[in-house]
Amino acid sequence: MKLMKLLFAIALLNIGAACAGLSKKSGDLGLIPTNSTPVLWTATESVASPESAYYDQISGEVFVSNINGTPLEKDGNGYISKYTIAGQLVQAKWAEGLNAPKGLRAAKGNLWVTDIDEVVSIDLASGKVNNRYPVRGAKFLNDIAVDDSGVIYVSDTMANKIFMIKNKKVSVFKAGTSLESPNGLYIDGGKLVVAAWGTDIKPDFSTKEKGHLYSLDLKTKAKTLITTTPLGNLDGLERAKDGSYFVSDWMAGRVYKVATDGTSTLLIEGLKGAADLGWDQSTNTIIVPRMLEGQVSAYTVQ
Question: Are strands 278-280 and 264-268 parallel, antiparallel or unpaired?
């Protein structure tokens, strides 16, 4: 574990330097991205290494997972904070006692959270953990998606696997290098859309090639590329009103909108560690954790 902590610390230094270089090159204006996408609000209170922001349409609230340490350390410091869609803090530590919480998704009265090598179920009404699902063989559980029948899909970026939890049983949905170190997940009808980090991932999170946005058929598991060329070290993933996708590039600090034909449009740049984003389609608000900056920012996009 000490070795992993050291490697991750080195990775953060390298990535931070790369992001700083990008910001300088593109004329970063701080809270105003270089393409002048307006910032609605930025939250810093009770934010500690934020990895995922999730907007729950039922409650109208924003949940943020805070690693509050390193992404692989079982230190019990991780927590979930809760905000209004306007960025006001509702509860600093709505759920506590986690290690390094990452992906979030609400379904059937629960908030589902990935936490290193287990999936945690938290009651939305109380913020109390009501179940834990250990995932044997997991290395780096990352994002999570839930289909209409309640089946849960979880990406393991470092292991090149996507796990499935069905009827409270954990199994491997798909594995192999063709997954390109899967990160962001989204259920879209009969397919699982995947935002990939990239191929041949190293301990410092660098890759031989950047990742594609692609889909997996939920029945046949067949892979179909959405972006025909690699797009980035992809992280967060949500679906827009028009059927296109919002996706973040953690390394480059960017957010793209990707049409169904694979055409990509840059929406936001100049961030440092653009992680797992949230989306409120009723107000066209995208919420982006800025992991290396200890901030969460919201923007109006189309």
Answer: unpaired
